[in-house]
Amino acid sequence: MEENGLQIRPQLIDVGANLTNKRFAHDLNEVLDRAEAAGVQHIVLTGTSEHSSEQAVGLAETNRSLLSCTAGVHPHDAKSWNESSRNHIRKLAEHSAVVAIGECGLDFNRDFSPRPQQQACFESQLGLAAELGKPVFLHERDAHDRFADILKAYRDDLKGAVVHCFTGNKKALFNYLDLDCHIGITGWVCDERRGTELRELVKNIPASRLMIETDAPYLAPRDLRPKPKGGRNEPYCLNHIAAVIAQLRGVSLNQFADDTFATTSEFFSLRI
Questions:
Q1: How far apart are CA 195 and CA 244, in angstroms?
Q2: Tell me, what DSSP letter sits at residue 4?
Q3: CATH class of the structural domain 21-268
Q4: DSSP string, 171-222
Q5: Residue-wise pLDDT tens digits, 230-268
Q6: DSSP states of 121-142 as a string?
Q7: What is the pTM of this model?
Q8: CA neighbor of 264 nearest in space, from 145, 157, 135
């Protein structure tokens, strides 16, 4: 994008990238270089288990200006949650690189963990976030009603809440906004097959509640050309996702980038 003959690079923050995933093991430095070249100023690494949260903290320590992370246990792994898990996540969350508790929540789509254990794990992490004064990074799939009921019971005690990778319907969106949640949008919005409803709904999210993310290595934007090698999503793709959302919202890419940068920085207390 150009302004007065000068190339303007948008400033972006990726609020969800799984860079501890083994698919990045061989070229992580190049992945980070590509991200920065595309205008990604900061990346929040996602912790999805005790092990990956520990890895995320270690990786974030290597480049604190570019990286921070969450610490938590995904509902898929809720069956492993116990008091020791809570203590481990609590200890990790004391690190300055950890800006939120999560990824936590409910997933009734795959049910990799029994639903009662998912709910117990979710509630325990919400309580931990409230205790530590940290926001939560949330996962919900096919579980909106129960998820919203649990979240509502804790919401007043939480510093903040972002529903990561939102792909729900209009009812779910407005319920989350009524609960004073932020909304994370991924490359799902770039999929003409599955993202049709989301492309309309994204216009209704206030700029002060909207964040963007890649969820790398998952959900590579379907309309991105050239296609990412091997279908692997990377943080550099955030530039394309931002451009698509900006167009849908009828604003310039730079304005959209500025808005999401300010919103995200405030939510995670980032000093960039």
A1: 12
A2: T
A3: alpha beta
A4: HHHHHHHHTT-EEEE-GGGG-TTT-HHHHHHGGGS-GGGEEE---BTS---T
A5: 999 999 999 999 999 999 999 999 999 999 999 999 999
A6: HHHHHHHHHHHHT--EEEEEES
A7: 0.95
A8: 135
